[in-house]
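We modelled the chain as a single entity of 206 amino acids. Its sequence is:
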Amino acid sequence: MILCSVLFLLGITSMGTVSSALPLTGIIRVDTGKKGANQVLYVFQVGEVDEKSPSLDFTLRPEYESSGIYLQDIKEIHVETVQALEKCVNLENADAEIVLDSEGKGEISVTPGVYLITQKEQRRQDIKIQSSLIFFPNMNTEQTGWNTEVEVNPKVSVSERPSNPPQTGDDRNVLLWGILLIGSLTGTVLLVIGKRGKRREEGESS
């Protein structure tokens, strides 16, 4: 189940002409804190570098074009953006997975592109990890070079587990066991009465 959530905007900047060669690889690090420990995240590459553009622009992969999102126009990411992309996701075709450790940390090596990172499944039903949309690479603050390592800290929400099991409204099993119990007790009482009556008759005859 894909979770719709707030996204993290990382390094979407007007870069002008790319003055240095793009890094071939980089690292995306995820840190959810201990709340997200041992969870599994899906990684989908939804966009690629537009090699025809003189500046660093990204374009959607064909399978995500139906989302109606134009990466070149994104200046700020909203919930609707990730929802549109998640609708195009095929859970069976994830590009990679990130298995978070006992501290809620994990990382993956990536090539230039746009990545959607979302929770694969809820191993514990009370834990939800927000999705992240990451553009890699991005320029450093001084605009003098590329950041090859990106860290994202998605928000983790933990809901309380119910103290009592939910009522399903199906009381058929309870009713059945009640009938069997009453029948058993009735049979036991009749058996006892029968034995007492038999003993009384034997006593009178003797």
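As a brief sanity check on the tokenised model: The CA atoms of residues 199 and 205 lie 10 Å apart. Residues 1-19 have pLDDT under 50 and may be disordered.
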